[in-house]
Write a structure and sequence with these properties.
Layout: E1 2-10, H1 14-21, E2 34-36, E3 50-57, E4 60-72, E5 76-82, E6 88-98, E7 101-111, H2 113-141
Helix pairs in contact: 1-2
């Protein structure tokens, strides 16, 4: 298993950050691993809902079939997906209001036999991507 996380304070209210985070048409403008949604991203956000995403992890393309596991608008979005080579990917976005700003934390987890072979490189690559994503998200929201 490989676990990664990144956190940033964005100078905007949680509702504004959430609106950008869930604007699927602009998802690729800030998410460093995203390449596209084959079917336009989730049509509605509901627990149990599914969607497909094409991503790039460590420079390799990957198609992930996501399921929404937890949803609390403007606070939490947790998704779990199945990727290539039986890798399971989990991502959790947590927004915590902090005055007029918002603390945004992204936690990621990768599990599966293939992960153990490349856990170190995967952690480094995914952590860099999370930090880059938060920088870009901050630039779009603020």
């Amino acid at each position: 298993m490989a676990e990664v996380s990144a956190e940033a304070r964005i100078q905007a209210p949680a509702e504004q950050v959430w609106a950008q985070l869930t604007d699927w048409s602009a998802y690729g403008e800030w998410n460093a691993t995203h390449t596209n949604f084959p079917r336009c991203g989730p049509q509605t956000l509901t627990v149990g809902g599914t969607f497909q995403e094409n991503m790039k992890l460590m420079g390799f393309p990957a198609e992930v079939e996501w399921t929404i596991e937890e949803l609390e608008p403007a606070r939490v979005l947790a998704i779990r997906g199945k990727g290539p080579m039986a890798v399971v990917v989990a991502t959790r976005y947590t927004l915590t209001p902090d005055g007029g700003a918002t603390s945004v934390r992204i936690d990621g987890e990768f599990t599966g036999a293939a992960v153990s072979l490349m856990a170190g490189k995967l952690k480094d690559s995914a952590t860099a991507a999370l930090n880059e994503s938060l920088r870009k998200l901050d630039g779009l929201v603020a």
